[in-house]
Amino acid sequence: MSYEKKISRANPGLIVMVLDDSGSQADKLPGTSDPKYKWVERYTGIILDELLSRSSDVNGNNVVIKPRYYLHIIRYGSRPQIWGSPEMDIKTAVENFSNSGNSLGLGGHLGGTNTAAAHQQAFDHLQNAVKDEKFKDSFPPMVFHLTDGMSHTDATPIVDKIKQLSTNDGNVLVINAYIGTQTSLKYQGPEDFPGYVDVSEAGPSKDNIRLFEMSSQAPACIEANLRNENIFPKFQSGSRLFFDVRTKEMLKNVIQVIGSMGSRMAR
Q: H or E element: which one contains 8?
């Protein structure tokens, strides 16, 4: 499958965000003064801003928001919860986020970490979405999982089922963003980030290894974009869509690949 479709009003994209709000998210991220959930909300804000920008057209003195992206946001701890409403268009999602004080209501409030249940809820939504007229010919949905890695359940079996779902353009992509820096991969920043190719680079934590193994391999279009746009110029072929907080605006950079538009008429 090609992963060649461009996101447009005719072929909108679906982003499913799976956000860890377990008790450990209230702990400070090592080396910082902020709790982990604050990092989750920051990354979410970056994603929403990027998607809103890519959905905005200027018409005279007015900015018109086109429904090029839809957001399905799941918070989870011991159990999953939908934030906002199911499958919000980008304008609604941004308005809800802004009206809530740029917050998703996170704070480590949802107890334990049932990652499997959260991804089961994502699967239940996606198995219908990929067949929906709105998305079936679009670039495939992308699942963004933001977590500190710890979980009392193994989501691997249900994530494998998610990765088998597809639109006519490709299989669903699963991206894991580790809210931490404790991996074996050595690099200084985006300029020398090589991507995670081997499972040993994601360890030594078994939780991080599991996240790596749950992550999709980056399609060629994402690899090429990250290198050609000098975002991650050292990004290697075969890298997984697994990132840590040292890469900063990592999720925005991956979204840039599918944010490019075709002709103005197609938009």
A: none
Q: Are 17 and 74 in contact (CB under 8 A)?
A: yes
pLDDT grade, residue 263 (50/70/90)? very low
Question: Are 114 and 151 within 8 A, CB to CB?
Answer: yes
Q: How do the domains of the chain map onto residue ranges?
A: 13-259
Give the rounded percent of residues in the chain with a pLDDT score beyond 90. Answer: 52
Q: How confident is the model over 217-254, as pLDDT tens digits? A: 999 888 888 888 888 899 999 999 999 877 765 556 65
What does the pLDDT look like over 176-191, one tens digit per residue?
A: 988 888 899 999 888 8
Confidence of residue 116 (pLDDT cuts 50, 70, 90): very high
Selecting from 3.30.750.24, 3.30.70.100, 3.40.50.300, 3.40.50.410, what CATH number does the domain 13-259 have?
A: 3.40.50.410
C-alpha span between 253 and 33 (Å, rounded):
25
State the chain's mean pLDDT as an integer: 87
H helices present in 69-214, as ranges: 90-99, 115-129, 156-164, 199-202, 206-214
Percentage of the chain beyond pLDDT 70 is: 92
Instruction: Say which residues have a Cβ less than 8 Å from residue 251's Cβ, sequence separation at least 6.
Output: 43, 46, 47, 144, 175, 177, 243
